[in-house]
Write a structure and sequence with these properties.
- Helices cover about 50% and strands about 20% of the residues.
- The protein is of the alpha/beta class and about 240 residues long.
- The chain has three domains: about 1-55; about 55-195, no CATH class; about 205-235, no CATH class.
- Strand 4 (about 125-130) and strand 5 (about 135-145) form a beta hairpin.
- Helix 1 (about 1-15) packs across helix 3 and helix 6 (about 150-165) packs parallel to helix 7.
Amino acid sequence: MPKMLADIEKYVIQGRMDSAFIYPLLKHDYPDQPIYKKDLYNAVYQFCQKNNPGDTDASQMLELLIKWKDFDPLWIVKLRLDPISKKLKSLLWMSPTQRELYNKYNDITIIDTTYNTNRFQMMLCIMAVIDNNYKSRIVAFAIIDDETLNTYQWLFDAILTETGISPKVIFTDSDPSMIQSIKEIYPDTKHLLCIFHIDLNLQKKLKKKLGNKFEEFCHKFYICRNSLCEDLFKLR
């Protein structure tokens, strides 16, 4: 066991590997010894902390989430590190209660991202569903450092892998990377744009250009938007 820990430390510090790369190496080198991914994950995290000392908010948060997951395996905690610096790039978590809500109410899912509202310039991504009382219920949180296709692919793939659920409908803003990743990870899911973000874009793009005619335009737009069938929408 001490030799295995020494190998893990070497892979982390010298090889700059994460648990996904280390696991098959250990399975090859120690075929007769059971290797548990949770224990490996914790060991990699501890060696990363040892190699990059500093009691940051992110490390404290991750340590707390790992403790909760150790106490209750139904917690979902997934992270993605930069392969070179080992800095946190993405962190996803769902509590057991949130998992239960997502399992019950996944017909309509809403995904929203707040932009750079903290000193680390990272974004908070929130996944919510609508329950049987027509109330929004948050079912997942994620912290991400960018909005690239690769990041959203990682995020949605992690959620799908851990829950096995593909929502029937997902509402998002118009971010192209998010939309493309939804098409790839959830090919059978219907994607729609959130009307709130459409309203914001109308004000941003048209209010100044239309001037006094903006209110009239919005009135006609909302009438068209609220059409109950496609034929009526096209007619208006």
